[in-house]
Amino acid sequence: MIRQAQAVQKLAPISWKDTNVLGGLWGRRQQINHFVTIPSQYKRFEERGSFEALKRNWKAGDPNAPHPFWDSDFGKWIEAAAFSLAKYPDPELEKLVDSVIDEIAENQQSDGYFNTYFDLIEPDKKWTNLYYMHELYCAGHLAEGAVAYYLATGKRKFLDVMCRYMDHIDARFGSEPGKIHGYCGHQEIELALVKLYRATGEERYLKLSKYFIDERGKQPYFFELESLQRGVDTEKTANQQRHLKYYLKEHGPYAEYQSHLPVREQEAPVGHAVRAMYMYSAMADLAADTQDKTLLDASEKLWDRLTQRQMYITGGIGPSSDGERFTFDYDLPNEYTYNETCASIGLVMWAHRMLQFNADRKYADVMEQTLYNTVLSGVSVNGDEYSYANYLAVYPDRFKYASTLIIDKMMPGRHKWFNVACCPPNVARLIASIGQYMYSTSEDGIYVHLYNDSETTVDVKGNRVTLTQQTNYPWEGHIGLTIMPETAAEFTVAVRYPGWCSHAEVKVNGNKVDAPIVNGYFMLNRNWAQGDVVELLLDMPIQLVESHPSVRTNSGKVALQRGPLVYCMEETDNARDLSDLSLVDETDIKVQYEADLLDGVVTLELKGQRRETSSWEGQLYRPVQTQKTDVLVKAIPYFLWANRDPGEMLIWINHNCSCGSH
């Protein structure tokens, strides 16, 4: 393969197989994920008829007609189960996964093709509507599941099935004459092909991924040619003009699917947020595996634009429900927003990939910010209800007037399932694989990115080193690391100094050290012996965070943050009309751990004010005369909203004081 300008990764992530999450917040979430979330999702598949379709038992006229996206849900669910089985060996779950794989293998076509929807609904229209029908997207998620299951169990059956499918796709797509010169409307297969290449060593898969990325956005537009071939004139068909071709007219045709320009020429995130995140993740993968610096340069430009102008404080992205998309710089509404869980999961994936190139904490900070806020918000404390959209302010009454189509995804709380259920298995696979985001290795040591009780053993300069982490993070800022090299040796332990923290100390064996900071990491280089202990002490004040002045919906408001956690107010703690609450000039903020609340949580209690409402009967407006009354404002971590009684929720609160951090 021709090498481009060098895009060399400084770090190599430590696999989920080599990191054991021992406890803490993420350990608890993994436990619930394994014993509640993954089994309950299987039941949801059964209830909606997915398995009957998978078995090819569905026929025209039956209820629960197969959905074009169902295969992708199976792929993510298998991937979640695979990651979870590595931590929790479970013969019953493994047997269940094997039964699903058997059905996929049994119904794979002789030429390698597999798609439940097209086999049952439109068998004569395969590969004819790529912009919408998600065939390649579904294939990609199945391939990711196959790679994970092979790595977790050593079983090759599903991997071999998906290799045959990818061989089928490789024979039909590419620049050669007679092949389809196109790509999927929903990016995903690009990053899946890289994973398959890494698992099998088959370079054709890497080349095919690169083809899909390189071809995207070239003119003549593939989606235009495909539409004409299907008999759809995009200049005369009103819906195609609006939704397909000119949905984001200011960016150019097909911008909704990041196909308006070649990927290296795209300078700002536009269009569907999940599609964008999966594509950017694949661009980073290809930059690493083909050493193509042009892809890395484009990714860095897109990263800066997103994180500096288009990302919520929670790590949510994609504010518009109309197209599940980005809008314009600083457009970050709170109540009328979208922030799909899948989009934030994609952001975590992209951040993790970008982090490996230069070990810069700006990527790890966003990864952590998104994980602890929007990603964890995507699943309930009990593990069997989910958020599709993630609001920053909720007023439940407005949903009473939403259409059935909209309210399926955009509801004021979490729900058992959705008509399009991409988010539930997606959050399950991320929680199950959280260990892979915690550590990396470099040529001379180990990098620690995320903090949670965990253990990993890796090779450092030919020396087996076990690192064990103990902490009550994110509730407390003390992190302990025990270093156990097989042989005493000199190497580096790099520990992230989070961007939210204004003061931190590092100790080694009880002694404070003045370690250099490089790209936001304390660089601890010394001769390490068995049992050496590193302590990281992070100050965790309550911070009052303000928005850029151009974020119009947050003018005069602040958000509460402690450590990586953004806090919110709920009606159940603070009564109705949360938007009338304001914080006052008061430094007496109570931080309390409540073991019996929401599976154990640190809450905040602050002094605030609100107007009384008893004198407003019969009046909508009047000259200013209402006196404000003092109240106590209680806040909980945002990721825990909507786990109790339904009601209002608010992150950004009116700010009438001059205080900053306490």
From TrEMBL:
Keywords: Hydrolase. Residues 445-540 form the Non-reducing end beta-L-arabinofuranosidase-like GH127 middle domain. One of its GO terms (biological process) is carbohydrate metabolic process. Signal peptide: none annotated. Residues 21-435 form the Non-reducing end beta-L-arabinofuranosidase-like GH127 catalytic domain. One of its GO terms (molecular function) is hydrolase activity. InterPro entries: 6-hairpin_glycosidase_sf, Beta-AFase-like, Beta-AFase-like_GH127_C, Beta-AFase-like_GH127_cat, Beta-AFase-like_GH127_middle. It comes from Candidatus Cohnella colombiensis. Residues 542-654 form the Non-reducing end beta-L-arabinofuranosidase-like GH127 C-terminal domain. This is Glycoside hydrolase family 127 protein. The keyword Transmembrane helix does not apply. Pfam families: Beta-AFase-like_GH127_cat (PF07944), Glyco_hydro127C (PF20737), Glyco_hydro127M (PF20736). The keyword Hydrolase applies.
